[in-house]
Write a structure and sequence with these properties.
binds NADP nicotinamide-adenine-dinucleotide phosphate, globular, 7-stranded parallel beta sheet, 20% strand, alpha/beta, single chain, 202 residues
Length: 202
């Protein structure tokens, strides 16, 4: 299987890439590293990436940014960071990428626990994650050629604990193996329109 992994060199992406590389052809995409260059916040860049790659069997996204800050300080432009990158970036990966997926292919997107259990400073990140959940449930009804779509919604992952643990009091970190398995379910499973939730103690 030829699997494109956007963000395949990030904390989550590198574990997902390592797993799939054992049995599949993996192509890593990112702005600053990887096999192919893409800025998912720019639809022209997404189109150029798919044109250079040709057809793939699966698209995994382990990328997408949103601004974390207290709501009282958030400007309209601050919200557009998450809307352009994590939300529309992933919507555009699907909107454009569906024409480059082989029949029976799949999209596996990334959201996160904030959609269901937000913490302070995450009005933008939580909103964007929730929007992607609704997008996945709606677009699965319209994708053709047996193309599937799911989203992996994980809690704080073990490899990112040092960065984020102060924001998630009382949360049990998610082992990387469990997160990777969420993406395995998305790519190799048969479900579509599923939000693959990987939470602990929420
Ligand atoms: N960390 C967690 O605990 C956690 C939990 C649940 C959900 N998530 C979500 O999972 C995703 C990955 O998280 P992570 O912690 O692995 O992040 P990360 O370590 O920051 O890695 C993100 C990767 O995505 C790439 N990237 C970022 N913006 C991009 C863009 N506009 N276009 C193309 N590539 C881009 C980066 O590479 P370049 O810099 O080269 O572009 C980087 O390799 C995020 O959406 C995050 O919200 C994370």
């Amino acid at each position: 299987m030829k699997i494109l992994i956007v963000g395949g060199n990030g904390k989550i992406g590198k574990k997902v890439s390592a797993h799939f590389s054992k049995k599949h052809e993996v192509i890593i995409a990112g702005r600053n590293s990887g096999d192919v260059s893409v800025d998912m916040a720019d639809s022209a860049s997404i189109k150029a990436m798919f044109e250079s790659l040709g057809k793939v069997d699966a698209v995994v996204c382990a990328a997408g940014e949103a601004k974390w800050a207290d709501f009282s300080s958030m400007t309209e432009d601050d919200f557009y960071i998450g809307l352009k990158s994590k939300l529309m970036g992933q919507v555009n990966l699907v909107r454009i990428g569906k024409d480059y997926l082989n029949p029976g292919g799949s999209f596996t997107l990334s959201t996160g626990i904030l959609a269901d259990h937000p913490v302070a400073l995450t009005t933008s990140a939580a909103m964007v994650n929730g929007g992607i959940h609704s997008f996945v449930k709606a677009v699965c009804l319209e994708l053709t050629n047996s193309i599937r779509i799911n989203a992996v919604s994980s809690g704080l992952v073990e490899d990112a604990v040092e960065i984020y643990e102060d924001y998630f009091p009382g949360h049990n970190p998610i082992p990387m193996k469990k997160v990777v398995n969420g993406f395995v379910k998305g790519v190799l499973g048969h479900s579509t329109g599923e939000i693959i939730r990987i939470y602990d103690n929420c």
